[in-house]
Design brief:
The complex is a heterodimer of chains A (about 170) and B (about 675). Chain A contains seven helices and four strands, in the order H-H-H-H-E-H-H-E-E-E-H. Chain A is of the alpha+beta class and about 170 residues long. Chain A folds into two domains: about 60 residues, Arc Repressor Mutant, subunit A, CATH 1.10.10; about 90 residues, Glutaredoxin (3-Layer(aba) Sandwich). In chain A, helix 2 runs antiparallel to helix 3 and helix 6 runs parallel beside helix 7. Chain B is of the alpha/beta class and about 675 residues long. Chain B folds into four domains: about 90 residues, Roll (Ubiquitin-like (UB roll)); about 120 residues, Alpha-Beta Plaits (2-Layer Sandwich); about 350 residues, Fe-only Hydrogenase (Larger Subunit), Chain L, domain 3, CATH 3.40.950; about 90 residues, 3-Layer(aba) Sandwich (Glutaredoxin), CATH 3.40.30. Chain B is built from 21 helices and 24 strands. In chain B, the strands form seven sheets. In chain B, strands 2-1-5-3-4 form a five-stranded mixed sheet, sandwiched between helices. In chain B, strands 20-22-21-23-24 form a five-stranded mixed sheet, with helices on one face. In chain B, helix 8 packs across helix 10 and helix 8 packs across helix 14. Chain B starts with 5 loop residues before the first strand and ends with a helix. Classes of the chains: A alpha+beta (about 170), B alpha/beta (about 675). At the A-B interface, helix 1, helix 3 and helix 4 of A face strand 7, strand 20 and helix 20 of B.
């Protein structure tokens, strides 16, 4: 069985190849690479720059411009809290405080030391009718309250612990 | 012929004569619209908003990004235009570190100048920028992001003209900063130190690194004897700082100023340029007659040499092994000439005055330090010498010209034109012609290699054989040219490369000049200086002849090789992390590193990595090894390179790599 890290490296090569090593496809390439690593490690961006004949500074410029790209490792569960107008009016700030306090996080310290959770805000998820909205990885949770949000965290933690026990 | 089209500018009809944008038409009408992000040799960016004008029926537009159209009615100075410019400038100034009195760019600063012109007397906005650390890692350039106004001139210069892209914009909104990849310092990335970014920087965000204090210290040290060498391009530009025209020769005043400051001897880099021509010309003839590696590339430009080392390591053998004139001077002065002057070499301090920022890097290369003693101790730019003259209070315009000292101050015109693109080639031709043809060259001018085009080609027939020559300036042109050369589409014998557009006369260490046509004037200044000298061919320099007769033997001799030649090495582009592919649990695991840097990647490093990892899993070795994909062992010309433990395998393939791993593991087992 090849290691996880090697499989990822092979995937990166395959992604670049699928896009014909076209520098114009840098953004989709970075998106797919990020799906593999959950963030964009410096050495992987350097490798991508090499394969696309771009300067590493250009690749870093693009990666650091878009909020979607993560330059530091994120937790297994990325909790995105919407702070768009509708969600803000419906009290997203209280939700954010509750989540951060529970996990011991701040505006600059966004990932728990066990790499389980990352809490970030987004400007609008386009689901204003469900305000306030939280998205955990790909799942959307609407009309959230602090109680519901903390319960969500508890459930994830429990699920994680039970999978560890069963291993 | 089409009828001439006109644009109406502030009520005047101005013809459109092929200008790509309205700004150029307006400037042609003698209205100097301010700009930060517009540099005619770069692409249009349209960010600074200074060139905003009012166009009837279309409103307020940036003239740099608007093509001129017939019948356009343009107003360049309405109340609204003035207000827009002023507010934009105020916003730029809000985030700018406005400590002008301690800024090296002060009085040469576009930001200062335009603020004054537009009458900004107050900045109403608070800064939202967090202070950034100043990057002093590079030998040649200081990067101070706190002074950056994000015009992007440096970014486009580096990417478009030099084809490197060492710096770029990163992050977004008020966090935007121009920086090397991943926020590294300049020293850790592929910057070749040409300094062209600093040349176009309108503020003090990118500036040449100063060695002025170190030079004063040496000058004031009574135990030291400080001597100077002046590069050709300095003499046609330094005067600009004191009101002379570009191209006006001020060699005599420079010598006089240096003598007042305390320099014991003032010599000329043109002397060692003459010496370079004899060595380089001879090397070329040798390569041609002995089936050596061709085409031969000139190696006088340190930024070009670093570019080859980092981007075209497989072409290092094409570089002439000759040291540059700066280093030849240092070598001759310390190893051959110090004794003659009765100075112990360790007490001699060689100061170079150069138009160039990369020369600072060259002087510090380990190849040019012998037993702890550098050939050249300090390199100051033309700008730094101007500063020293001003610090001392020397009234430059009132100086009686002084004479360069002999013998290392004597030169022919061939050594002088080194500062122009095509100059090294022309000087070499003047030597090679006589050497190969065996007769006197009557007219020393080779107009075919002169000019402004980025890539110029010429053919010359010598003793019945036709030689194909090329002259290339700017590194983007160099890259395009080398790609064609590699593809075998073109064939040449001898190619001159210079990093800076127009050559050394436009180096980043020269006084900042924004007037149109300054490059052509400096170029002309050097060609005229050649004309005014009695001798035009390096081989006629009597002191160079004397140096060979008394000390070096003949060009290319063993002694000459020892003193005047060097070698170059592949150099990594970036200091960075490796990708870990297999990470064994065992404490003392065998480290296997496969280079995936550009050269090795193109030669199939990925394949080696693939098969190596497969093999490790098949043999169940994943606990006792660590496999890394890494960037550059600086053996690019011998790639792919793999390191197994301490063993480096060049020209590696899967079989060789696997064999080395087996052997290393067996040895470990035997040791227990």
């Amino acid at each position: 069985m090849p290691t996880v890290m090697y499989r990822k490296f092979e995937k990166v090569c395959a992604i670049v190849e699928r896009h014909g090593a076209d520098p114009a496809k840098l953004i989709p390439i970075l998106q797919e690479v990020q799906d593999e690593y959950r963030y964009l490690p410096e050495e992987v961006m350097t490798f991508v720059a090499t394969t696309l004949s771009l300067s590493p500074a250009k690749v870093y410029g693009v990666a650091s411009f878009y909020a979607h790209f993560a330059l530091v490792p994120k937790g297994k569960y990325v909790v995105r809290l919407c702070d768009g107008t509708a969600c803000h009016v419906k009290g997203s700030e209280n939700l954010l405080d509750a989540l951060r306090q529970k996990l011991g996080l701040t505006g600059t310290d966004v990932t728990t030391p066990d790499m389980l959770f990352t809490v970030e805000t987004v400007s609008c998820l386009g689901a204003c009718g469900l305000a306030p909205v939280i998205v955990v990885n790909e799942t959307v949770y609407g009309q959230m309250t602090s109680v519901k949000a903390l319960k969500l965290l508890e459930d994830i933690k429990k699920k994680e612990e039970s999978t560890h026990v069963s291993v | 012929m089409d009828a001439v089209k006109y644009v109406n500018i502030d009520g005047r009809e101005v013809p459109i004569e092929g200008e790509k944008n309205l700004l150029e038409v307006i400037r042609k009408a003698h209205i100097d619209i301010p700009t930060f992000c517009y540099v005619s040799e770069l692409s249009v960016y349209g960010a600074c908003r200074m060139c905003t004008v009012e166009i009837e029926g279309r409103g307020l537009l940036t003239s740099c990004s608007t093509p001129p159209e017939a019948g356009m009615k343009v107003k360049t100075n309405t109340a609204e235009v003035r207000q827009i410019r002023k507010i934009a400038l105020e916003l730029i100034l809000a985030n700018h570190d406005r400590e002008c009195t301690t800024c090296v760019k002060s009085t040469n600063c576009k930001l200062q100048d335009i603020s004054k012109r537009l009458g900004v007397d107050k900045v109403r906005f608070r800064s939202v920028q967090k202070p950034h650390p100043i990057d002093t890692s590079s030998t040649s350039i200081v990067r101070n992001p706190n002074k950056c106004i994000l015009c992007g001139d440096c970014v486009r210069m580096c990417a478009e003209v030099q084809g490197i892209g060492a710096i770029d914009f990163a992050h977004r909104g008020h966090d935007v900063v121009v920086q090397p990849a991943f926020g590294k310092d300049l020293e850790s990335v592929a910057c070749v130190l040409c300094g062209q970014c600093a040349r176009v920087c309108p503020t003090g965000a990118l500036t040449p690194r100063s060695e002025v204090e170190a030079v004063w210290k040496s000058v004031n040290d009574t135990k030291k004897v400080v001597i100077a060498q002046i590069a050709p391009a300095v003499r046609v530009a330094l005067g600009e700082a004191f009101g002379y025209q570009p191209g006006e020769l001020t060699t005599g005043q420079i010598v006089a100023a240096l003598k007042i400051m305390g320099f014991k001897k003032v010599f000329d880099t043109c002397f060692s340029a003459d010496l370079t021509i004899l060595e380089e010309g001879n090397e070329f003839i040798n390569r041609v007659t002995n089936n050596g590696i061709l085409p031969m590339f000139t190696s006088c430009c340190p930024a070009w040499v670093k570019f080859v080392e980092q981007h075209y390591p497989e072409m290092i053998p094409n570089l002439s092994s000759c040291k540059s004139p700066q280093q030849m001077f240092g070598s001759v002065a310390k190893s051959l000439f110090a004794a003659e002057l009765g100075i112990a070499p360790e007490n001699m301090v060689v100061v170079s005055i150069m138009p160039c920022t990369a020369k600072k890097f060259e002087a510090k290369r380990p190849e040019f330090t012998h037993d702890g003693m550098p050939e050249v101790d300090h390199v100051i730019t033309t700008q730094e010498l101007v500063q020293m003259i001003n610090q001392f209070g020397i009234q430059f315009r009132d100086l009686q010209p002084g004479s360069l000292d002999m013998p290392l101050g004597f030169k022919t015109g061939a050594g002088v034109i080194f500062g122009n693109t095509g100059g090294v080639m022309e000087a070499a031709l003047r030597y090679v012609y006589e050497k190969v043809e065996g007769k006197t060259l009557e007219n020393p001018d080779f107009h075919a290699v002169r000019g402004e085009a980025g890539i110029r080609e010429a053919e010359v027939t010598l003793a019945g054989k036709t030689f194909r020559l090329a002259v290339v300036h700017s590194l983007a042109n160099a890259r395009a040219f080398l790609e064609k050369l590699k593809a075998g589409k073109i064939q040449y014998h001898f190619i001159e490369f210079m990093s800076c557009p127009a050559g050394c006369i436009n180096g980043a260490g020269q006084p900042v000049n924004l007037t149109p046509g300054y490059k052509a004037k400096r170029t002309k200044g050097l060609y005229e200086a050649d004309k005014m000298l009695q001798l035009h061919k390096s081989q006629d320099n009597p002191y160079v002849k004397e140096l060979y007769a008394s000390k070096l033997g003949s060009p290319g001799s063993e002694k000459a090789h020892h003193a005047l030649h060097t070698h170059y090495n592949a150099r990594r582009r970036m200091r960075g992390k490796s990708m870990i592919i297999v990470d064994g649990k065992q404490h003392d695991k065998l480290e296997i590193r496969v280079c995936v840097g550009t050269s090795c990647y193109l030669k199939g490093a990925q394949d080696i990595l693939h098969h190596m990892t497969r093999y490790i899993h098949e043999k169940n070795l994943q606990d006792i090894v660590q496999v890394k994909a890494t960037f550059c062992f600086e053996k690019c010309n011998k790639g792919p390179t793999v390191k197994v433990g301490d063993l480096t395998i060049t020209h590696c393939d899967v079989a060789k790599a696997v064999q080395a791993v087996d052997k290393a593991l067996a040895a470990r087992q035997a040791k227990g």
